Fold each of these.
Amino acid sequence: MPHGYVCLTFDFDALSVWVDRGQLSATPRSRGEFGAVAVPRLLDLLSRRGLPATWFVPGHTARTYPDLCRRIRDLGHEIALHGYAHENVAALDEDAERAVLDRSVEALREAAGVEPVGFRAPAWDLSENTVALLNERGLRYDSSLMGHDYAPYRCRIGDRVDAESARWGEETPLVEVPVSWTLDDLPHLEFLSSPTRTLPGLGDAERMFGDWELDLRYMLRETEQGVLTVTCHPQVIGRGHRLLRLEEWLDRITAYGVEFATVGTVAGLAAGGAQLGRPKAAPAE
Ligand SMILES: [Zn+2]
């Protein structure tokens, strides 16, 4: 039994993220295009190490790059949902969100013949309807929330939070495999600018991977079968200096004896009752 899991996830946003940002002039478009340049590099890097990954693919990307999606599938990786054109679902009403979900499922089915079991919200935010919609579709997991660092948990419906207190709603079958902005390459590394917001990015990839390694070491010391889920974007991580740091990081953490698993695999274990990420029992006095 592995003493911890690492889920490598890649959000293959390609042009969809620029569609969502309304930045469709030539250079933003080309930044999305670079994502497709980076995907084969990442696939080769993973294949050389025999590592599985989960690829969250918007419908827009699946329709633009069906061959790459089939290659991802044929190498045994998981493909999961990531909106159609990278919509912030928290800003959609229920009918619009259901339509986007239907359209994104259809696009993955057409491009790669896959039936996704998981979803990651493009803006890492869910509407009040998302959990019900994902359950209604029979999906196994979401990977957008941040309520734990190492332990998958059940998504709830009906949380009530106001200035007085928080009252939790009912748990549902949908498993949450949690994420964090600290475990996402984009805010660390990518420079983004728009009239309303600048994300400085351009940080030191080695420092980012060093922090991720410390998160992993803490997980292995403190928890039983914890899960560390990291998020990378091909158009961010796909530059030479970052890929070399990624390779070094993967080789270092492989030495800890962790098991690399897809998010779908981990969600399946959690749904089956596995207690992942529990604190280790204190040693007897
Ligand atoms: Zn994305």
Note: The pocket of zinc ion is lined by residues 11, 13, 17, 82, 86, 122 (CB under 6 Å).
Amino acid sequence: MGPAGRTLLAWDFDWSLIEENSDTWVIGQLGADEIYRKGREAGMPWTQLMDHTLREAAALLGRTREDVEAALQATPLHPELADLLRAAAAVEGGEAVDIVVLSDANTVYIDTILAHHGLRQLVAEVHTNPAEWRGGVLRVGPYHSKPHSCSRRCPANLCKGKVLLELLERRRAAGRQYSRVLYVGDGRGDFCPAVLLLHGGGTAAGGGDAAAADGGGGGSQSPCGGSGNRVYARQEYPDGLPCSLSVMLRNEAHGDGGSPASASVAAVAGRQAGAEAEARVVPWRRPQELAQLLRRELHLAA
Ligand SMILES: [Mg+2]
Ligand SMILES: [Zn+2]
């Protein structure tokens, strides 16, 4: 059975769809770790650090576009997740699945890796930092050119919650309404969209006036907070280290305070809401396991 209606399957990229961090993977393959380390110690923001490292790898180490592309093509992506994407994209009719990627990597990395595995045309939208080749050097810039004013610890260059909310609003305005959103993630940047999907978008990232614009039937219901939403939160990396998203969601569900005197009605209601939200978080550790969980949720043959 399962809920009828279109599903949005939204992916983080690094350590969610691929079994690596594409940024640090490429740096390692280029032998540019020392350049990266120095920039990091100097306190550069992430996208600026990536842009700097790629520029210096070209200027000081002579690394070429071909070197970067070879590194991208060697990035590990589990074949069972590739098969899952193909199966999900092949579903037609009322229970069709639309696939999008929200990532703090960059457009060239994601397009190149997906295309290498024959998956690029299955992904409806990729939202990530813009990148382009200029004279054999890959230049990377921030996704948001203006401050996003999100308070959920999103990096300055990208608030995935804001991106997801705008994506859902845009698609709804174009007549495409989703019965649920399945979100796959592992990192700090995935906390913001995860909270929106689990608790609704009422306090959503400061998007300005667009949200209030439609007078249509749905009332003030945010496009984000459906009970069918699931957050597939990775629990640990292959080296056993815990993933930030799962830790942040656990802290949020249990309330950081936890004072023994908090037996008020509000505190009890808050704990109940936390428990309900936590029940919609699906833990996973390995890509094979994630592929199985998503196949079950989407009613795809194993
Ligand atoms: Mg990630
Ligand atoms: Zn945010």
Note: Residues 150, 152, 154, 159, 161-162, 192, 205 surround zinc ion (ligand 2) (CB under 6 Å).
Amino acid sequence: MWPRKRLDIGWLDMASLRAAFVFRWNRRRATANVLDAWPADGQTLPTMSVRSGLHLILGQLDWPRGSEILMSAMTIPDMARIVRHHGFVPVPVDLDLNTAAPTLESLEQATTPLTRGLIFAHLFGTRSNMTPVLDFAKRHDIEVLEDCAQAFTGPDWTGTPGCLASMFSFGTIKTSTALGGALVTIRDAELANAVIREHDNWPVQRRLSFASRFARACLMKLLAYRPMFFAFRLTLSLCRRNFDHVLNNFARGFPGADVVPQIERRPCTPLLALMCRRLLRFDSETLARRTAIGERLRCATRPAAALLGHQGDNHTFWVFPVLSHDPQSLISRLRHEGFDATQGASMEIIVPPDGRADTATTIRTAFDRIVYLPLYVSLPDKEVQRLGCVVSEQEAGSR
Ligand SMILES: Cc1ncc(COP(=O)(O)O)c(C=O)c1O
């Protein structure tokens, strides 16, 4: 069985992290090294996660309580939770299924006189052209926060000038993961200074808690070997444990609904050291290979199954979500053929504010049809082709 995901980190990086737990103690130097490796056009702060960065920024903005923040409707639940925590109202913005990005019409539809901000997420490995969005935001006096958690492509692209902030994640299942951490670039000096002052008051993440994440990541890497994955699945089914549930919990950064106390931490020194290593040794060839494989799979699954965001700009295929006519049958068939596809459990469609008409009907309707196909550079061409054929055949049959 080809597992659903392989962590984008090598054993050498893992070994360097193990050494960092012993030898790296100078936080100031580790922070400076990260900043040297990230040539952004504003003030950058390495944080423990994108969620920490968003929490810091929203805490320093002087918007009145009840201000509305437009958000790309599909995101992880914590992003909307953090917005609500600050007394703001998250308003979902519909996505175009072809590009996986909000359209100008959907932005217009969701905007009201209370709108102050927009959190625009580049989803699934796409990176949208922000010019029309920034023009729209300027017309309506809206600040744009750019969520690049799923769109990291190395230090050559550090975000869109014109956005108030750009946030990149090094979380466990992300491109070039550091098993956590994020880079948050802020392009307003006053806001950046306030955010940095507040961040300095937070305690440093405990090494022990980062070490436990390291241990979980080692396990996830081992499970990416097919015989291990097979044995793991068999064991769970014999113990009558839900396999999806167990795997999703492995990758979860901050469990439970009470996220805020968990994210108010500064990154520990070993995490900073690993982020720096991932930036300095960023492997653009591997990313190019992933993009080529994604293109091949996109062609092989067309036209029977549409990739959500198949016309997305600058696609690097961080994940490969297709819209299925019968998701459960597709998943069963793929598992039977040796591919671990899944519906995923980490993202949601933001609910509209009470009493307001839904402003994200297209993506809400499509959401339950999404199936994530396994895709990574170690998947051989022959298997990519076979995966495409199975999906096409199954989808053609279930129309
Ligand atoms: C769209 C999106 N936004 C934000 C985040 C949060 O990133 P982090 O784990 O660094 O807090 C994620 C994480 O998966 C994400 O997918």
Note: The first helix runs from residue 11 to 23.
